[in-house]
């Protein structure tokens, strides 16, 4: 019989959470901040209870966030103190290098900077407030909401789309004309060159 374990649930201050990636899309963070502000006060606790933050415990049981970085940063900016955590694994017995090796092997980290360049785990910031802004990650998020591709369970799928868009748009300063670049991204999303990406939606073919 399989060994079925109950999930380990904890609470922690957002200032005590450690990222496992270098960048986020700050426009995406702003979208989540707006969504939070629009919630009625008596619904906010329920929302937090339904959005557990998945973490892996590192040395001294420090919690490392493996998903929902944008939400965590948004809540931090909005002055939220504590969030509920779901512990995916306890790696607190591992030394630092071994810890990050396991995190990388299990795809629980994304050490790519705001230029899409892979860095050492040592370049990952210690706290959520020091995450860098990657405008292409914001473009990828907006593209998904606009129906450019489907939501997918592949880890860091939006970053894969961000990398694709970065390569196709060749370093364009998208933050200054975001809506225009979203239109371009919508066209690029249906190109067959994007077919390797998670959630790709093949264009409709009209049969005569």
UniProtKB/TrEMBL annotation:
This is ParB-like nuclease. It holds the Pfam family ParBc_2. InterPro entries: ParB/Sulfiredoxin_sf, ParBc_2, UCP029669. It comes from Zymomonas mobilis.
